[in-house]
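Lecture 7 notes. Example A: sequence first, then its structure tokens.
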Amino acid sequence: MAGEGALFQNVMNVTKRSFIGLLLGSAVTSCAASKLKQATGETEMYGLIGKMTATQGQRDALSAILLEGLRNMPGNISYIVANDPVQPDVLWITEVWTEAEAHLASLQLPSVQDAIQKGRPLIAGMERIAETAPIGGYGLR
């Protein structure tokens, strides 16, 4: 038993050290990327991940409205609407914008206002799951 406790403690210490190293490495990388962006005048991308629950049986109608309303949004890099494979009324929306201000400005666009007006009666619930700071990946710059 005492040997197991010591082994567990060693594993926990290694895990803590690895985790702290990962955090420090991420901070250094993030800081370096931020400095590079500042030097080049590039702004940090802004991302959102949201969960939208449609009223019962209205997911397809709601997703059609969302997809139609996302045309010509300045600053939008990616706007993905996806069905939840398990929950029949749930949509996942993943967005990437050039910057947070572009996202805020998009809410005033006529096409987005129209989508909000049409979609509102079909929405049973919305959750902002996470705000993100995308750094790259396939399909992004």
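Example B, a different protein, same format:
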Amino acid sequence: MTFQWTVSHEARLVTATVSGEVGLGDFPAFFTAIAEAGALPYRKLVDIRFATLEFHLADIKAFGQTIDVANRSVKAGPTAVVAKSELAQDFAHTYEDHTHLDRPIGIFVTIEEARSWLDRVAPVTRS
């Protein structure tokens, strides 16, 4: 499993790429790193096109509830998920349905669509 991410404070963007076999246990380090970087309110682009997702519906529901609790004190930024397979898209929709944060989630097939959507829903203004 490879889980790589970068945080751009200038662009207010977290970009993550996930590949290989991935379980829900692989995500906490990602969310911890984002929180420590002060990037929870930032836009997020999560590419799971090359990931093999290894978890069940109940796991996704529990994960969504965990994210809700962890983000109560900070307004989370919009999340664009890039998913190629039907299973990955189903995961993203289930995640969307079981998190109750006040932020948009978009599910896309290409990186370009995801970036365009993020730029529309949360444009970065330069000072």
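Note on Example B: The two ends are 39 Å apart (CA to CA). Strands lie at 2-8, 13-22, 43-53, 79-82, 105-108.
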